[in-house]
Amino acid sequence: MATASIAQTSNDDLGKLILRLTVGILIVFHGLALATGDMGIPNNLARWHLPTSLAWLGFVVEFAGGLAMVLGAYARLGGLLLGIFMIIAIFMAHAGLMGSQNHLFLVAMNPAGNHWDHYFLETQMFYLLGGFAVALLGAGKYGLNIGGKWN
Amino acid sequence: MASTAMTGAETRAVADFREDLAKLVLRVTVGILILLHTWAVITGEQAIRDTLMRWGLPIGLAWSAVIFEGVAPIMVILGIYARAGAWLMTFWMVMAFVLAHIDTGHIFQLAQNGVGWRVEGPFFFLACSLCVALLGAGRYGLNIGGHWND
User: How many domains does chain B have?
Assistant: First the structure.
């Protein structure tokens, strides 16, 4: 019994690590894209008549929040911020408001463009719910273990 | 914090609730999103068939999608031998990478719009399936399958 529960724990921690690394590393790439001139977020802010400089908030969430998850330092905080950020992103860019297209109920085409095959917001949902999952699960033991209950 | 037994028990209950909720969120997310891809395969989307053809494999193998990304995610969503279902999905996604995304160089490329990794989507399916396999289904489901579900 003792052996079984130890194996269970290490599987749990491994699962948490894989989730953190996946969500964290992939979103860091989006932070880097933003920092190197991707106009997705600034353009959306402009459409909402908001200062485009607010995009730095997106960079903090994507890059610093992503690193927090990867390293296991305030990982829950990073995940929570990412989840909230993605809700705002979907609201501002994908909900048919202020001149955006409504993608909420849209099934999208495959890369070849000859057959629909996935939910339009598939990636966004992975970040949104992956972020919340990290926030709820915590970092587990494989990481820097910084941040107390926020990790 | 845990100065009294009561506080400790409450803290534990909150922690369990959070863990089980996270597991439900992961199961439903990865399960529902992949079922759309499966329906596309069933209704004639060619990507998997093209890949099989490129490797000289029988095109009929595409129908194994019904098991690996059809029955398996339903097991994951409902909590029926969810870990087993998640391992089947993990195997399926590993095969997707081996047959479609490594030799083609996709894993070294950015997305076509230049933002993010090209195989972000497939990798999310691979990693989240593996996470469900390792973490289990938690409390919120049909709870069928003992160790192969919890």
Answer: 1
Q: What SS3 class is residue A51?
A: coil
The candidate with the shortest Cα–Cα distance to A15, out of A151, A137, A131, A150, is A137
Query: Which of B63, B88, B66 lies closest to B76, judged by CA?
Result: B88
Listed range (A4-18, A63-77, A115-129, B9-23) with the worst mean pLDDT: A4-18
Q: Which domain holds residue B109?
A: 29-148
Give the pLDDT band (50/70/90) at residue A144.
very high
A132:B22 CB<8 A = yes
pLDDT bracket for residue A6 (50, 70, 90)? low
Q: Above 0.85 for ipTM, yes or no?
A: yes
B72: in domain: yes
Choose the mutation target among A5, A114, A117, A150 for the interface with B, i.e. most B CBs under 10 Å. Answer: A117
Nearest to B83 by CA among B145, B34, B126, B36: B145
Q: Is the pLDDT of residue A104 over 60?
A: yes
Q: Do A137 and B37 touch (CB under 8 A)?
A: no
Instruction: Kindly list the residues of chain A whose beta carbon comes within 8 Å of any beta carbon in chain B.
Output: 11-12, 14-16, 18-19, 21-22, 26, 29-30, 33, 38, 40, 107, 110-112, 114-119, 122-123, 125-126, 129-130, 132-133, 136-138
Identify whether B113 is part of a domain: yes
Q: Which residue of A has its CA nearest to B21?
A: A136
- Report how far residue A143's alpha carbon sits from residue A76's, in angstroms, rounded to the nearest whole number: 13
Residue B67 lies in a domain: yes
Question: Is the CB of B134 less than 8 angstroms away from the CB of A14?
Answer: yes
**Tokens 């469900």 -> residue:** B132
